[in-house]
Amino acid sequence: MAEAERIIGTPDTPGAAGAQPEQPDRSAGPEPERSDRSAAPQGASDEVAGADGESSVSGAPEASGEAAAAPRGRRRIAVLFTVAALAYALDLISKLIVVAKLEHHEPIEIIGDWLKFEAIRNAGAAFGFGEAFTIIFTVIAAAVIVVIARLARKLYSLPWAIALGLLLGGALGNLTDRIFRAPGVLEGAVVDFIAPKHFAVFNLADSAIVCGGILIVLLSFRGLDPDGTVHKN
Fold it and tell me: How far apart are CA 80 and CA 78, in angstroms?
């Protein structure tokens, strides 16, 4: 009997003949896969990616906005000084011609009696007002130049750049006369030569100052600030 059992084997014996190897139980579902990524805390990579994405998305518009604002500001400042230089050059050249060709000569009629070129020396403000306050007007002109130069750092509006350029050029033109012409430094008389009928005699610097002032008043009424913002009262 023992010999027969050894040959045939029994079902309870693992090594018995005919016994099938034990199969794993697959009813519980597939074994979860393991990888190096699962070892990392959940959401860590997402947080890193999100931080990078946020910095790239939110930082890019801000950087591009600053980059766009800086050139725009430089262009407006360039317009201001270009207009000022043009106004100053025209005023200076016209005064040199008037002093050389017209002073101590008869007036030149441009439109009959309505408009003449007549060289005079004006110790006062624009259009001949306040001749007793020459030094005060000189100081005011210098203060205007300083204020415009400081305001230019925040200048983003093209109309304001033109207006301030006219003011700056006109102030520089008359200030040059105050400093370098007779009777002395800071007391020099301004050269005027444009003489309309029934009106005070003036020069191109006075015209630039008046035009710049009128433009500033119009821009203020429209609510446009020098930095380019528009507000409503």
Answer: 5
